[in-house]
Structure formats: structure tokens, C-alpha cells
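Re: the 145-residue chain
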Amino acid sequence: MVVSMFWLWIGLGLILCFLEVLIPTAFVEMMLGVSALLMALVSLLIPNTAVQIVLWLLLSVLLIYLIRRFFPHRKALSLEEAVEAQTLTAINPGKTGRVLYEGNSWQARCEDHHLGIAENEAVYVVRREGTTLIVIPQKQLDQYT
């Protein structure tokens, strides 16, 4: 039983470390994997599976906390008001579509819920609500200037 838990922890650790390469998670999976590899050694000393799992969780949290201290803290991204974008898909009234903003595709909705915006039309970004940009068509603004 002790030897099988050793190999289980080794396998879990290697899988988690490999997953970090495939799906980067800011070293969370890597720290889970490293703590699993350390638990393989601990499993040779402590044969109780429940204790091993609790120790693995505690060690994982500790390693994640320690590694996060070395990452720079990011500021929340803010959008400037009235920045130009272009629609990638049509934005139907009251629905969402896609816009090209700063080289990235964003989900977008027209501020006027009764107004639709055609594809490949210039728009202004008014604000952001979560991951959705709120836009108004440029031609609508041009009517008032």
C-alpha cells in the first residue's frame, strides 16, 4: 500500500506539472504538482492516506502563497472613454456582437437597446461592463456634431 501511494503521488505530481505547460495557470498547477511530488516522499514515512491528502492541500496552499509573492501585482484595466473600435459582427438591437478594440475581439452591446449596428462599422467605446464593451455607432455621434 505504501509503495502504491508513492507512485500515485509521483504520477499526480508529474501530470499536474505537465498540465501547467499545456494550460498556464500562473504556476498554480505547478505548485500543486510540486507538493504532490513532495508528498510522494512523505508517503513513505506517513502511510495514512487522509493525513497525506490534508498535508498535500496545506503544502499546496503554502507554495501557491509563496510563489504569488514574487509576481508583480497588476492594476485593474480601465478603458478610456470614447475610444474608437470597429464591429466584427452585426450587433442586433438588445443583443451582443463582437468588436475589434485595441487589436482584440471583444463582446459588445449597443448602448441604445433599440438600435442595431452593422458589421464593419466604426463605433465608440463608451464604457465596459465586465467583459462586454458598451458602444455607440460613430455615425450616430456625427449627426450631433
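The mean pLDDT is 88.
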